[in-house]
Write a structure and sequence with these properties.
This protein is an alpha/beta fold. The protein has helices spanning 11-22, 55-64, 79-84, 86-107, 140-157, 188-197, 224-237, 256-267, 291-296, 306-319; strands at residues 2-6, 26-31, 46-49, 69-72, 111-117, 162-168, 170-172, 203-206, 218-219, 221-223, 243-248, 254-255, 273-276, 285-286. Helix 5 (140-157) links the parallel strand 5 and strand 6. Bound molecules: nicotinamide-adenine-dinucleotide (NAD).
């Protein structure tokens, strides 16, 4: 297939581009490099530096190639930052996405795979969280994902587009020497690896008095390689499932303390930890029910053990020449 990949200079998008190229698909990446870097666009993909909200330029890209599908990863991702600059998040994640959708519909590109997030659920009422859990967001970031999902549902209902909204839990791990490097980094595993590498003096853990076995928060880490196979499967089922929403997670959680221990074990280095008070907005436990993804996508995570995730993330840092 011919795929337009937005945000393909970023962590998850770039990994999916690799997987698409490996499977023999043609890929054009559109990214404005607001957080990604051009050297992270995999070789073999055509790269166009562009914001997805630039309608005339996107229309040109769509004129040049007859795409079968658009994978939409482009977006601002830090929920904390969205509490400080909500207007920027809504403009980028919602406004620019709706503009992109308008261009796609006009060009007749009617398959759309969207990077949604577990953040659409807000504070969980129960766990594992399934897709019928109520959506009551607690940040502009989560709301930006939900607003796009709602728009997609209407476009699908009115026959404009087929879509899959994939609600990732915590993307982690690495492939092809592409370490997870967000700026600023807010994700636990890369932060812990930075401490192990000596780039950072200590790791802040927010709260050790949660109602979990070791008192630290529990999250569901999904390897980017497993996310990539799920995306390709999602693009391929859209003929049968024209409006598809599903979680992408493992169904198992790891506590912050377990992550730190895995980083110590894999790297053979110490990871100094500073335990502080709980952070507002952090849920105790976020774990996905992934039965729908398994059944409909015929997908299962095969690389998402905590040890494999941390080992691959560390190996990618080493391969990329990051300080270790
Ligand atoms: N990483 C996670 O754990 C996680 C979890 C849930 C959902 N997601 C979603 O997955 C997607 C990818 O996440 P990631 O971790 O790879 O983030 P990332 O920051 O590494 O990649 C996002 C990419 O989008 C680009 N971008 C942002 N706004 C753009 C715009 N308007 N036009 C063109 N390019 C733009 C950035 O330059 C960057 O390369 C995001 O939409 C994010 O919200 C990520």
């Amino acid at each position: 297939m011919k795929a337009l990949v937005t945000g393909g200079a970023g962590f998850v998008g770039g990994t999916v581009v690799h997987a698409l190229l490996d499977a023999g698909h043609a890929v054009v990446v559109v990214d404005n490099l607001s957080s990604g870097t051009a050297d992270q666009v995999p070789e073999g993909a055509t790269f166009v530096e562009l914001s997805v909200g630039n309608a005339p330029a996107i229309t040109e890209v769509l004129r040049a190639t007859s795409f079968d599908v658009c994978f939409h990863f482009a977006g601002l991702i830090a929920a904390g930052a969205s509490m400080v600059e909500p207007e920027t998040f809504f403009a980028n994640n919602v406004g620019e996405t709706l503009s992109l959708l308008q261009c796609l519909v006009a060009a007749g590109v009617d398959r759309f795979v969207f990077s949604s997030s577990a953040a659409v659920y807000g504070e969980p009422l129960y766990t594992p969280i399934d897709e019928s859990h109520r959506t009551e967001t607690v940040s502009p970031y989560g709301e930006s994902k939900l607003l796009v999902e709602h728009s997609l549902a209407w476009l699908a209902r009115l026959g404009r587009i087929r879509y899959a909204a994939l609600r990732y839990f915590n993307a982690a791990g690495a492939v092809h020497g592409r370490p997870e490097l967000h700026v600023p980094e807010t994700h636990l595993i890369p932060l812990a690896l930075e401490v192990a590498a000596g780039d950072r003096t200590s790791l802040d853990l927010y709260g050790d008095d949660y109602p979990t076995p070791d008192g630290t928060c529990i999250r569901d880490y999904i390897h980017v390689a497993d996310l990539a196979t799920a995306h390709i499967a999602a693009a391929q089922i859209l003929d049968d499932e024209p409006a598809f929403v599903c979680n992408l997670g493992t169904g198992t959680g790891s506590s912050n303390a377990e992550v730190v221990e895995a980083v110590r074990k894999v790297t053979g280095r110490d990871v100094a930890v500073r335990v502080g008070p709980r952070r507002p907005g952090d849920s105790s436990t976020l774990v996905a029910a992934n039965d729908r993804a398994r059944a409909v996508l015929r997908w299962e995570p095969v690389r998402s053990s905590l040890e494999a995730i941390v080992s691959d993330a560390w190996a990618a840092r080493v391969e990329a020449g990051e300080p270790t």
